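pinned: reference chain
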Amino acid sequence: MDIRHLRYFIAISEEKSLSAASHRLGVAQPSLSQHVIKLEEELGVSLMQRSTRGIVLTEDGLRLVHHARQICQSLELCLSEMRDVGGAVRGPVVLGLPPSVSMVLSVPLAETVRVELPQVRLQATEAMSGFIRGWIADRTVDIGFLYDIDTADRFNVIHLLDESLCFFAPPDDWPLSTSPGTPVALADLVGLELILPSPSHGLRKTIERHARDIGIILNVVIEMDAMTQIKELVARGSGYTILAPAAAHDFVARGELVKSPIAIPDIHRPVYLCSNPDKPLTRATRAVERLTVEVTADLVTRGIWEGRLSDGITERLHRPAS
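pinned: its structure tokens
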């Protein structure tokens, strides 16, 4: 067995037809059939079956194509990195960001990558964290931000920081007896008309879990999974909301919203940078990952991204250069 056999088998599995794979590879169909037969004889298993729908992989065939893709991808990565040794870091990197992270990080990170890694093409893709989890799993993105890693235990994970959630209101309609900026209790928000993401959203789940823990029910009058629209509705006086400070940094800076941290209980959520161990990181991806950590730490240190850096990130930043 050699890498050529594996590439042929991957093509057959994707085309689901020997004739289509033959056309794609520029290899005669009888020759492809012989390659498959030799693979089956060498491995001692049946790899595929013919049906009215074309080629169907057996369970052993599916297992082989999974390993074959990893082997071919690792080889391509090896060749690419060896060609680049001693040269500039280059290549594409796809980064997945939830809206609240994108709001505060995407612009300074893009500017930093452009200056420090001019031959790296960064593609920042914004979506809810549930989609990003799927994209990391299926290797659509190289690295991505997640808030919940309970169902992502296979991923490589860097714990960046912890964000504490805040209550937001328009400056001319502050509904509490305390002043904006003064810590408030979650129970103080009972009865207020809230605008929150839908129940499937990670932020909503976190808020509802803390509400249940202290035995209260929040009055959610509008459900909206678009952060910009939530902020716009609150700024227009249609209700109030609970968000991570980074998500509303722009509206607060313009004076369109005011906020108070929720202190009883302290509702915080971790922010993780994740990658799939089945997708080896290129030099470009590792470089972007490093810059992401550095830019995040800088934003938190300067108070632009409100939160507390994780102990691991603090140790990494203070570690002497080797």
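why pinned: The two ends are 42 Å apart (CA to CA). The longest strand covers residues 156-164.
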